[in-house]
Amino acid sequence: MAIQWETSPHREKKNLNSLILLALGEQTNLSIGKVLYDTIENLLSRVAGTTTNSYIANHLNQYTNIDGQLLQYDTKGNLTSGAAHLTATAMDYAYDAQNRLTDARPSSPAEGDKRITFVYDGRNRCVKRNTYTRSSGNWALSTEHFLYYDGWNLIEERDDSGNHLASYVNGPRIDEPLARLTTNATYYYHGDALNSTVAMTGVSGTVAERYAFEAFGLPTIMDAVGNNITNTAIGIRHLFQGREWLAEVGLNDHRNRYYSPELQRWLTRDPILESGGVNLYLSFGNAPQNDIDPLGTINWGWKPPAWFVALLAQIAKFTIGQAYSSCAAGNPCNLNACYNCCNKVQGLALALILVAKASVLMACTAATGGFGSFMCVALGTLAASQLAIANHNAYKGCLEKCNAANAAAKTGSRGGGAP
Question: Is the pLDDT confidence value at 189 over 60?
């Protein structure tokens, strides 16, 4: 089965919302957007303007074909070649024994193309990053950066001679860059709710550059007045979600693995395996506008299992349907008794809704192993709110049926019928 969704900040919430509405017997239209996923969140197709991209995934949830371009993986599930840089050229990737990216280069390099190599420390932090430029059929070293950290936050860059290139001031949260300082200038970051950088200003407060992002994080770089430019003129890399954008190879560095905004996927399997969800390549629950993943390991992809949805359906049918309908049928002549019946059913329904909320929270927490607890709370709250709204409407309907049944009984009595 395939489900079509719009690219929305609340896809996970919409999913549970639709399941609950379906359980209540209400009509929903799932074909509301231009992105088509299978049931394990693999893309089947997406439409951007007049362009439609088609995707084929194998049984390991690896994209193997995108618009006829073949993607290949090694035996550990790492993407080694293919279309992760869709708008440009196919790329080749190499990894070390710990599945960390060590080399990213075009498969068929042209003059002026870029290549990046990576070196890591024991904590998976990239401590050296070399950039090469294709020149006269060879790769010529362009820049050699050594990276220094405070925990996971980048605080300094130096070249191979030890010369200072840049320093960073970070906020208290992870991926909250505040300022970038070089020997020539200081620039300040201005971010949105996801810590995605939307503008950089100088010490005078004048805007130096602006940034915008597609739904899955592909950046657009603009000058101070909003004109698109190809590359940053001031060396800014911390862009989408405050992570480093490596424009030369089209990848976002999320510490434990790399994310391709064009592919909308990680290049490698989840380091925490199925603890992060059954789809090891799924990124941000396919909703990166709403969810962050600073370490490349958070599980945003949990959804209620079928049996749990069926249980919610039974609760909904009982609390919102059958119990309320018995009030008017059983008390047509006694309006107060009918009202009291509605009130009792409403109280029972509210208690069961709290049980449903707690059950969603516990099931989600158990399934995610503690990762994404905010999402679990949100799912539980959403389930309770949807059931509460339906319960409120059913309660009002119960009272109206009481009035109608009582009026019909009185009319029958005046006409000589037995109430």
Answer: yes
